[in-house]
Amino acid sequence: MHNTDIQYIRSVIHHKYTSNMHNLETNFDKFFNITKSVFKDRLNKYDNFVFYPSRPKLSDCEIIALSVTGESLGIDSESYFWGKLKFDHKDDFPRLIDRSNFNRRRKHLYPFIEQLNQYLADKLNECKDVYLVDSIPVPVCKIVREKQSKICKEDFETSPDKGYSAVSKSYYYGYKLHLVTSVRGVFHSMDITKTSVHDVHYLSNVKISGLSSCTLIADKGYLSSTYQLDLFNSCQIKLQTPKRANQERERLLLSCNTLIQRMINQLIT
Q1: Looking at the chain, which residues constitute the CATH 3.30.420 domain(s)?
Q2: Does domain 130-268 have CATH number 2.40.128?
Q3: Phi and psi (nearest 5°) for 6?
Q4: pLDDT tens digits along 233-250
Q5: Nearest to 187 by CA among 262, 111, 110, 252
Q6: What does the pLDDT look like over 163-178, one tens digit per residue?
């Protein structure tokens, strides 16, 4: 992938919070070319990963590019995105398939989409030495239906449980999503744990996430001198957290933490 492509993606990330006007076709073309470049050794001459008896209107590369394009523009509503494609960009996408067909194929192509997202994240995070980590509740049902719920209860180790949310100041039943991003809002890694797992224990996973020689900004839930020392000795990661009530607060760290909260909220919307 050329450096000009990386610079273009960075400009999209920068402007998606400051402007609602985007050239969707231009974004699609860029991601389509990037997808072909990343998977060039696995694609056939029709830009598909597998052979189709009847050649589809959209190739696998085009399905992936459309999916990533919507995500890059911060469009959370699939209905809204599909409406823009069908009405505002009808001439740009004359071979657009049915939405249900698109979703079925995108589901089968998810491993490739995930691989492409990781590739782009690694490229965009090159030479970055400051990252953010935070968590947010992921309820699976109302707390009053805790005992009746059968969601993911087959295995105790991965089943949801009850916990307290400092954000809503209430108890909830579900999981906890942990996320590491760069200060520009580019995802690096994420994981889901049981609600009862304290934030500080997720730092053990950070050690094997690929981060090294950087500064990691976290809120007071990650405050631990033991983990702080362990991260620095094993990966040269300098953990910084806002000070508690008896210490001077660091405004810069708190303002940076609002960015990751915004990214998490967009992710689970």
Answers
A1: 130-268
A2: no
A3: -65, -45
A4: 888 999 887 655 544 445
A5: 262
A6: 888 777 889 998 998 8
